[in-house]
Design goal:
The complex is a heterodimer. By secondary structure, chain A is α+β, with helices and mostly antiparallel strands. In chain A, 50% of the residues lie in helices and 19% in strands. In chain A, strand 11 and strand 12 form a beta hairpin. By secondary structure, chain B is an alpha/beta fold. Chain B is built from 8 helices and 13 strands. In chain B, the strands form 3 sheets. Chain B has a 5-stranded parallel beta sheet, with helices on both faces. In chain B, a hairpin with a 2-residue loop joins strand 8 and strand 9. In chain B, helix 2 runs parallel beside helix 3. The two termini of chain B are 23 Å apart. The chains are: A alpha+beta, B alpha/beta. At the A-B interface, helix 3, helix 4, helix 5 and helix 6 of A face helix 1, helix 4, strand 5 and helix 5 of B.
Chain lengths: 447, 228
């Protein structure tokens, strides 16, 4: 339930269902009551008609004029409409021709009271049964209490109601289906800006854009404004931070350069010169490695998608300038479609160091290739130089002094090692098809 | 050869300038970006050494401006920034080489020499024109294998002419590339240097290595070739 769309969807469906059921039940009951009232009126009318058709002869015999009966059905045996007149709690005085069964016995109402009920006769048929008690004053001033019964089969009543129910539910279902469809469209339409914002955030994270767009819905403006401010702050922080690192490096390394060159002065004794050079180298290494580790731990959460081949080509073009005198042949065998989501600076640091090492130690040829398997990307750099043994332990310890540095122990590979560790990747030595050194770095989960 | 050093730390700049002068370079120097950008545009520079973290104007901007104005002299970046991204950006901006601080002065000089040779179309440290050999590293000159003793200015004139062998080089260009200060420049002195060079390299006037085109300048007549 942690999704706005699900919440809105479930909410809409529940409200819609409750509304439909409530409406259906209310309409059903109203219609049934209305139909029952109509039934009551009709049966009452029949009893009034019966009252009009009934009379007492002088001898006190009750007669009913069959031609004056209020409904012709009463004369048809087996029809669904029947009538009967009987004495109060007593024997039947008259039965309509249609009455071919016995109406169930019921307590008669007091005179002037109308009673309607639903009854079941022996064969299971149901009838609306109305009875009404009248006190009939005969000509001899004698009073006779009569009970008029009219009953109608419930079949047609039930049929009409059930047809109405079916239609009601059908109409409501179609209506709610349409409503649901409209709701889904409205939901999609209302949530569309949210999706746009989400994809914009993803683009920011991928580094394809710097800020969220301005045209976000009004309700989200405070959120996008805050996010944009946060992004600006982050960019400012990164710039400030990079500048601070640059300044620090500049302010530490420039004096080191001065000291180193002063130490080389002829006036300095050879012993002092060596000590100074040594210390300068140590300080330089420490500064470089500390600055690097600070930079690694303070990485921005936003990284761009970097095309591997383009990146390698940029590095190679740069190195071609630096190593112009060597006339190296640097071959790049990387599919132009390969890319990874990595900070360009990190990617460049790793590959720059590896490729420069190959250029430095290679004789004539350097080969850079890459392969992508699933989400892992492996980039290998080979040279035709003398080769060396990669000492991962020495790299991770990094206490190597300038005077005992050899290939595989320098700051460059140490930076690569630290960075790859930090990125969750790994560096390993591989067989070089060119006969020299071969190093491979594997990035997992960055493609 | 005329070198421009743009570096804001006075001590380091002085060290580099001293080392370059000792190598026979004429030098220009700037301690901030704006001054550096001006000199880089206006002076007849053969090579520039540019720090990246400069007050006033960033080194990268200076390099871009120099290249945008069509100047092709080599530029070496000297910086405390050791990130690869900075290196690549600097080289992409138009620099030709990159040296991280702290550096060894010998390495800086070696790189400068290499860049100059490369810009003159030379892969080796020795330039040879006929029987004349000029070793830019040792700064000595041999003719038919015999060491020829030259003064610093004579060496500078010969080096420039040999690097531009076959090309006509005006007196003013020569003086611009071998003198530090404008007021020192005197084209008559160039004539003196050329006369002395002819006498030292070709005492019998058989070789005739330097040709004079009246009113236009001088030309190294011997074709250059690579040896070693």
């Amino acid at each position: 339930m942690n999704s706005i769309a699900t919440r809105l969807g479930v909410g809409a469906v529940v409200v819609l269902a409750a509304f439909v059921i409530f409406t259906a039940v209310a309409i059903q009951q109203a219609v049934e009551k209305r139909a029952q009232a109509a039934q009551f009126d009709r049966l009452q009318g029949l009893i009034y008609g019966l009252l009009g058709a009934a009379d007492f002869l002088d001898d006190g015999t009750l007669v009913v004029d069959e031609f004056a009966l209020p409904d012709g059905q009463l004369n048809q045996p087996g029809a669904g409409l029947v009538a009967q007149i009987h004495e109060l709690n007593g024997s039947s005085l008259w039965r309509s021709n249609s009455l071919i069964f016995e109406l169930p016995k019921r307590a008669d109402p007091i005179p002037g009271e109308w009673q309607l009920s639903r009854v079941q006769i022996q064969d299971g048929d149901e009838f609306f049964h109305m009875h009404f008690t009248v006190q009939w004053v005969l000509e001899n001033e004698r009073e006779q209490t009569l009970v008029f019964n009219v009953a109608q089969n419930t079949d047609s009543f039930d049929r009409v109601l059930s047809r109405f129910d079916t239609q009601l539910w059908l109409v409501l279902l179609i209506a709610s289906g349409l409503l649901l469809l409209i709701l889904i469209i409205v939901l999609y339409w209302s949530l569309h800006p949210l999706k746009r914002v989400t994809s914009a955030v993803a683009e920011v994270q991928n580094g394809n854009r710097d800020q969220l767009p301005d045209d976000v819905p009004r309700e989200l403006t405070p959120l996008s404004d805050s996010l944009n401010e946060l992004l600006r702050n982050e960019q400012r922080r990164q710039t400030r931070y990079k500048n601070a690192l640059d300044d620090l490096a500049h302010s530490l390394k420039t004096p080191l350069a001065v000291i180193r060159n002063a130490a080389a002065d002829d006036a300095c004794s050879t012993h002092h010169t060596e000590v100074l050079k040594d210390q300068v180298q140590t300080m330089d290494d420490i500064i470089a490695s500390k600055l690097r580790s600070v930079a690694i731990t303070n990485r921005s959460p936003i990284s761009h998608r970097v095309n591997v081949r383009t990146l390698v080509e940029r590095i190679v073009n740069s190195l071609n300038k630096v190593y112009a005198d060597k006339t190296l042949k640097i071959a790049i065998e990387i599919d132009p479609s390969y890319s990874f989501k990595l900070h360009e600076g990190d990617a460049m640091e790793v590959l720059g160091n590896l490729i420069e090492n190959a250029c430095k130690y290679g004789r004539k040829n350097v080969l850079i290739n890459a392969s992508q398997i699933g989400s892992s990307l492996e980039i290998s750099v080979f040279d035709d130089g003398p080769g060396f043994a990669l000492d991962l332990v020495a790299l991770s310890e990094r206490g190597v002094r300038a005077d005992n540095q050899s290939r595989g122990q320098g700051l460059g590979l140490s930076i690569v090692h630290d960075l790859m560790n930090n990125l969750g990747g790994k560096i390993e030595q591989v067989q070089s098809p060119l006969g020299g050194a071969g190093l491979s770095v594997k990035f997992s989960g960055y493609t | 050869m005329r070198a421009l050093v743009i570096e804001d730390t006075d001590d380091l700049r002085t060290q580099i300038i001293d080392a370059l002068r000792a190598e026979g370079f004429a030098t220009d120097e700037a301690s901030d970006g704006r001054e550096g950008a001006y000199l880089a545009e206006e002076m007849p520079i053969d090579i520039a050494i540019v720090d990246l973290g400069l007050p006033g104007q960033d080194g990268i901007e200076i390099i871009k401006a120099v290249r945008a104005s069509g100047k092709t002299y080599p530029i070496l970046i000297l910086t405390a920034r050791t990130r690869w991204q900075d290196k690549v950006e600097g080289l992409e901006a138009g620099a030709d080489d990159y040296l991280a601080k702290p550096f060894h002065m010998e390495e800086l000089l070696a790189r400068i020499r290499a860049l100059l040779r490369r810009s003159g179309g030379w892969a080796q440290s020795t330039i040879t024109c006929g029987p004349i050999e000029l070793d830019t590293r040792q700064q000595d000159v041999r003719c038919n294998g015999q060491i020829v003793s030259l003064t610093a200015y004579e060496y500078k004139v010969l080096e420039y002419l040999m690097l531009h062998a076959g090309e006509m080089v005006s007196k003013s260009t020569l003086s611009e590339h071998i003198y530090d200060e404008e007021l020192e420049r005197d084209s008559n002195v160039i004539e003196v240097f050329v006369r002395r060079l002819r006498k030292k390299l070709d005492p019998d006037s058989t070789l005739n290595p330097i040709e004079t085109a009246r009113g236009r300048g001088y030309r190294m007549t011997l074709e250059r070739s690579t040896t070693q």
